Amino acid sequence: MAMPDDALLSLQTDHLKELQARYESALAEHGYDSLLIASGAAPYRYGDDQAWHFQGYGPFLHWTGLAGREHCWLWIRAGHKPVLWLFEPVDFWHANSPLAEEPWRQFIEVRSSASPEAPLLDDPESLAVIGDPALISNIPGEKNPEALLRDLDETRVCKTPYEIECLAQANRLALAGHAAAREAFLVGESEFGINLAYQQATGQREAEAPYHSIIGLNEHAGTLHYQYYDTQPPGQTRSLLIDAGVRFRGYCSDITRTTAGPEESHFAALIHGLDRLQVRLCDMVAPGVDYIDIHRKAHQGLAALLSATGLVTGLDDEGIVEKGITRVFFPHGIGHFLGVQVHDVAGKPTPPPDDAPFLRLTRRLEPGMVVTIEPGLYFIPSLLDPLLEGELGQYLNRELIGRLRGCGGIRIEDNVVVTDAGSRNLTGGCESRNTKVAQI
């Protein structure tokens, strides 16, 4: 990946100053003089000497961006430089990754440690320690105090300019991967081959990505978190759904695109219709908007699309929503917060409403928040079949649904930051996608 420019590095220093102020305020509010943050470490698999892949604890990444660094410790105190103990064992089995000489190292004191153990600190009575309970249980100080953790989560809700630019760069890198994945689809590659094309274009191993890429051809696109990659292409390539991101300096992108195969004009029309709806939903992102309203607007738009394309007949759009038909075609929420975690924290200060049980964000939008907007339209047998067999089945176009089932489904997802005046689409909106029918 390209080296960060001076402007980004300057923004990082400002970011750390802002974090210091936010954390000092939270510590004072809850009566602590200092805070020790554990980066964490990957647990070993049961009955094995191999560990799971590790990406890091959210608050540690919020400060350092050092994903994948295990057994590190960050000490925060009011009026003092933060201190980072970087685990660098003397080891001939593994390499120690060197830190770049960047301006943030003038703000945080970095100490090398050959031991994975926590540092010994003065005055543990006024110390809070946060991280994986399995790794901090024997450390003096109060472990994972709930009230403090809630306030620290709040420090991640409104992103600093540095965080937003990291998220923007994560989007730019991922879009190169999505373009390569689409080209691989167009030449008839398998799911596995498409994944390799994505990794090659992004320059990031799957294990380093923010989440396991979802790459589904044909009916596999109808499984929301489809987790396997067929190594052979299907006999007839009807559709591609790819949901994949990149991690940049700790920050995640989360982008989804869907492409229709040849001779799938009905499916291509659905993609085009959902694409137009998604753009309108992105345009709704602005300060003061209730995110739940965006979710409900998605269902209204989906009802209009189902009606316009003949998938549902005999009901007006309001009836399609009220009878729960749109929830069968679109069973998940419209999106979530995004940051150093793909589903970033503090999204649900109140539970989701009954008509949106899987919604991960129930807040009113504020400048600095970064959200995903990801409507979908799926043909999921476990949801569709009961609908078809019930009283509401009379309103569904069985013949058309039968023809489209093999295409699996559609999801289109962008990452959007709330600005003072409206929003900025970090993914690029319309310019970043191609919804034409593939010519394979």
UniProtKB/TrEMBL annotation:
<feature type="domain" description="Xaa-Pro dipeptidase N-terminal">
    <location>
        <begin position="13"/>
        <end position="152"/>
    </location>
</feature>
<keyword id="KW-0479">Metal-binding</keyword>
<protein>
    <recommendedName>
        <fullName>Xaa-Pro dipeptidase</fullName>
        <ecNumber>3.4.13.9</ecNumber>
    </recommendedName>
</protein>
<dbReference type="InterPro" id="IPR048819">
    <property type="entry name" value="PepQ_N"/>
</dbReference>
<dbReference type="Pfam" id="PF00557">
    <property type="entry name" value="Peptidase_M24"/>
</dbReference>
<dbReference type="GO" id="GO:0008235">
    <property type="term" value="F:metalloexopeptidase activity"/>
</dbReference>
<feature type="binding site">
    <location>
        <position position="413"/>
    </location>
    <ligand>
        <name>Mn(2+) 2</name>
    </ligand>
</feature>
<feature type="binding site">
    <location>
        <position position="374"/>
    </location>
    <ligand>
        <name>Mn(2+) 1</name>
    </ligand>
</feature>
<dbReference type="Pfam" id="PF21216">
    <property type="entry name" value="PepQ_N"/>
</dbReference>
<dbReference type="GO" id="GO:0006508">
    <property type="term" value="P:proteolysis"/>
</dbReference>
<feature type="binding site">
    <location>
        <position position="254"/>
    </location>
    <ligand>
        <name>Mn(2+) 1</name>
    </ligand>
</feature>
<dbReference type="InterPro" id="IPR052433">
    <property type="entry name" value="X-Pro_dipept-like"/>
</dbReference>
<keyword id="KW-0645">Protease</keyword>
<keyword id="KW-0482">Metalloprotease</keyword>
<dbReference type="GO" id="GO:0004177">
    <property type="term" value="F:aminopeptidase activity"/>
</dbReference>
<feature type="binding site">
    <location>
        <position position="254"/>
    </location>
    <ligand>
        <name>Mn(2+) 2</name>
    </ligand>
</feature>
<dbReference type="InterPro" id="IPR029149">
    <property type="entry name" value="Creatin/AminoP/Spt16_N"/>
</dbReference>
<comment type="function">
    <text>Splits dipeptides with a prolyl residue in the C-terminal position.</text>
</comment>
<feature type="binding site">
    <location>
        <position position="413"/>
    </location>
    <ligand>
        <name>Mn(2+) 1</name>
    </ligand>
</feature>
<keyword id="KW-0378">Hydrolase</keyword>
<keyword id="KW-0464">Manganese</keyword>
<feature type="binding site">
    <location>
        <position position="243"/>
    </location>
    <ligand>
        <name>Mn(2+) 2</name>
    </ligand>
</feature>
<feature type="binding site">
    <location>
        <position position="336"/>
    </location>
    <ligand>
        <name>Mn(2+) 1</name>
    </ligand>
</feature>
<feature type="domain" description="Peptidase M24">
    <location>
        <begin position="165"/>
        <end position="420"/>
    </location>
</feature>
<dbReference type="InterPro" id="IPR001131">
    <property type="entry name" value="Peptidase_M24B_aminopep-P_CS"/>
</dbReference>
<dbReference type="InterPro" id="IPR000994">
    <property type="entry name" value="Pept_M24"/>
</dbReference>
<dbReference type="GO" id="GO:0005829">
    <property type="term" value="C:cytosol"/>
</dbReference>
<dbReference type="GO" id="GO:0046872">
    <property type="term" value="F:metal ion binding"/>
</dbReference>
<dbReference type="InterPro" id="IPR036005">
    <property type="entry name" value="Creatinase/aminopeptidase-like"/>
</dbReference>
<dbReference type="GO" id="GO:0102009">
    <property type="term" value="F:proline dipeptidase activity"/>
</dbReference>
<comment type="similarity">
    <text>Belongs to the peptidase M24B family. Bacterial-type prolidase subfamily.</text>
</comment>
<dbReference type="GO" id="GO:0016795">
    <property type="term" value="F:phosphoric triester hydrolase activity"/>
</dbReference>
<keyword id="KW-0224">Dipeptidase</keyword>
<dbReference type="InterPro" id="IPR022846">
    <property type="entry name" value="X_Pro_dipept"/>
</dbReference>
